[in-house]
Amino acid sequence: GGNAGNVVANRLSENPQTKVLVLEAGPSDEGEVEIEVPFLCPRLSPGGPFDWNYTTTAQTGLGGRSIPYPRGHVLGGSSSTNYLLYTRGSSEDYDRYASVTGDQGWSWNSMQQYFRKNEKFTPPQDGHNITGQFDPTVHGFNGITSVTLSGFPSPTDGRVMNASAELGGDFKFNLDYNSGSELGLSWIQLTIGGGMRSSSSSAYLAPSFLARPNLHVVVGAEVSRVIKTGVKDGLPTFNSVEFRSDNVVITGTLIQLTASKEVILSAGSVGTPHILLNSGIGDTQALTTAGVTPLVDLPDVGENLSDHPFGVAAFTVSSNNTIDTLNDNAVLMNQAMQQWETEKTGPLVNSVATHLMFMRLNGSVLGSNPDPAPGPNSPHYELLVADGIPVPPLPTKGNFIAGGAVVLNPTSRGSIKLKSSNPFDAPIIDPALLKTDFDRVVMREAIKSIKKFYAASAWAGYVTAPTGGLEDAVDDASIDEYNKNTTQTIFHPVGTASMSAKGANGGVVDPDLRVKKVGGLRVVDASVIPFIPSAHPQAVVYVFGERASDLIKAAYPQ
Fold first, then answer.
1. Catalytic residue at 73?
2. Which one, 172, 316, 348, 365, has the greatest CB density within 10 A?
3. What predicted TM-score, i.e. pTM, was given to this entire model?
4. pLDDT (mean) for 340-366
5. Distance between CA atoms of 283 and 218, rounded to whole angstroms?
6. Is pLDDT above 70 for 169?
7. 139 is annotated as an active-site residue
8. Among residues 73, 139, 355, 536, which one is catalytic?
9. Contact, 79 vs 500, CB < 8 A?
């Protein structure tokens, strides 16, 4: 019942002859105000009421720290708990997917139909003139997921645009980062409609779709394994799922259900490999060591985990008109909540950032290192502009402006492994954040770029001083130390059930997302993405879900 799974459920159930059952481990998202109100997203991740509450292994690149690893434990998955950013990535991301899989259907041009099918661009809540803030020619207006621009002005919007114009170069204005050409500074785009979060649940499982008699959704149903049901065409088939349910009548009982056509795993980049491994699909030796009977030798299950390291560089400011004041003043927050509840307007209709910048390393920094970006027009890092501290722990006093730094094409690779043979034990999660020298260099350059941006004369008299340890990060060595002590994840894991070309030795699924060496089982979620996109992945996962739905329909012509 996550980002991609609800897309597939919606599209397959368009045919009244196709019966679809969605199993969601978490509760329903219906009526949950913290999910619905965009600005409250920091209350959800990490450690909110709808989080799996995972923790990583000790991260060598982070000085041995273990950190929270949020994943959405609710209908809609992480699309119900993320920070609502709508970024498609670089056109070169998709062309690389097409190249490595040998399937041109994954290319940027081929995927355009699915962006249009998914996206429903809507005017922002405050009705401001959005001419020059986005490019309508690259958007869809008749899809399902609502996308919009910020619906409440930030007092620093003018300074941001002035700094971009003043600095130029890497900071130049880009009309729309969702055109496939991301480089530069753009106005942020968000999965919001009518002042409310638009998630895969609220959009693809809206009441009109849930009314279909052939679409069924069960919440509180945590899948433990897929079960081998036979052999077909020389391949073991896995048409059954085993799960436990919160339903009071059957609590404590493991239930098995069998699909007449296919089981589609959409449990995400942590959950999907965890289920596959518990089912005996993975590296034979590792499964045996964990006490699980190996059934299918597929060594790459749980490998190739790629995630975006995330750092924050904050500065004190001379104004008290920042999001910090709203967060630490209960009276103001109550007033804003009342405005949101009655009118769906005001500061709570926004997320916590205002603009995004996508940048490349210059040639002297990249040096002779192989370029991990998918092409010469793709960024190495992203900067988020926030009118205050945007992520937990939120300050209880003071006013700030911040830049978020994201390493977009990390060379580090981590893994998801079994902790035990109990399928309900959390897995061992190692995202390998800042593990390679390259990733540490990129994060260092990103922090330098944030400092440069806020040193522009557009900020004179407003930005007063670096804070939070940034004041001591004055050269490469001290910036690296700062990053080691403060970097987290922006929780974008992909790749743990990677797609590869049909017949390839590596990988977990074929380009049609069928699990290799297996029948009756597909994976449709971020785990199949072989290289992390230059994006916050939800938009990518939506279109993967849309194309997967067409691939599945084509396999069962009526």
1. no
2. 348
3. 0.98
4. 96
5. 31
6. yes
7. no
8. 536
9. no
